[in-house]
TrEMBL record:
Residues 1-25 form the signal peptide. It holds the Pfam family TPR_16. TPR repeats lie at residues 211-244, 383-416. This is Tetratricopeptide repeat protein. The keyword tRNA-binding does not apply. The keyword Phosphoprotein does not apply. Keywords: Signal, TPR repeat. InterPro entries: TPR-like_helical_dom_sf (IPR011990), TPR_rpt (IPR019734).
Amino acid sequence: MTRRRIVAVLAIVAGAALLVSTASALTRRGGEHGTPGPGAALAHSGVQRTIAAAQEKLRRSPRDAATWALLGSSYVEQARVTGDPSYYAKAQGALTTSLEHQPVDNGPALLGLGALANARHDFSAARDFAERARSVLPDTAEVYGVLADALTQLGAAAEATAAVQRMLDLEPGVASFTRAAYDLEQRGDVDAATHALERALESASTPADTVFCRYHLGELAWDNGDPDLAAEHYERGLSIDPQDVTLLRGKAKVAAARGRVDEALAEYADIVRRVPAPHHLHEYATLLRAHGRHEEAAAQTTILSGQFELLRAAGGADDLAESVVAADQGRAAQALRLAEAEWGRRQHALVADALAWALHLNGRHAEALALAERATASGWRHAGFAFHRGMILASLGRTAEAAAALDEALRINPHFSFTDAAKARDALAGLR
């Protein structure tokens, strides 16, 4: 399926009631593992009720495979809405029990295991479970959502697009439109991605879904250099759920970009106190370090290391995020080791970029450039990719190309990083 067909579908399909949960919809970042998704606070009580009802039913019918599958999938959702990876083991146990009671044609259990594998960043396993679920449930949209998430992160772009298209064909709603938006964004079509998210917002049937869409619209605006529009989406989402940490994080980013550093730091301090997820901790530490508060930044880094350990203990791993953190902290050898390990598992653009930067930090600039070029090959308007490519080109003495890449990074988003945006401006001035 082609991007043109997805755009055509987006243009002509009427909004529909959401039948596929947004719980399994991929976040816009591959490394925000353990972070509650947008709308999580509003979804929490509903998930708790589902879990309680399933547990009560299993007390009466302990061999009910369908209810075990529902319980397992609900635990995956509980991990998302709480940011607590300890629910992964509970999900694994319930889904395995479901398969023990119904080992053949148990599509819901296979689908749940696929969602769990995606949550743990085991994308190859997620793809395999989704394919097995598809053989049982060939016309179920959520199957293609789990499959698209896995294929996207594995770097299988054409196959991921086809899975998203099939999901759109089956159920054009919030979950499918947001996936289409991410697919289009990675191909550099920001206008179509925005349109897809607007269609998702039109399809939203619950407050949690509306918050979900507002967050993604805000992030797309932010990543493409429009903090005012981003702030509008974040604020409109917060008017529905004032405690949503993803929206509060967006609000903090905007405050930092507008020079309200104390406000941004206070917001981040509250966010990591409530949800000490790796992505939140890393951003907070980076903002602290950017403003000379190195001891406080080091304290957040210590907590961050502990969170990565908790994820590993829960059966997950995020070598990509750990590589990015190591690179930001000057641990070049470790950053390279982690990025190479992740690249061995999947060839997504985010991993190519992380590996390129790690190679550059280790003085292997020519190799780094090849990976940096691969990261940008899809056309994704990603300021971080352009910055890394520009700095690598500068190290190779290709001054004009380096300046063009750094200028591109700042045109895409002049506030793309609390630390690297300033480095890009300084490097560009030096090159000129």
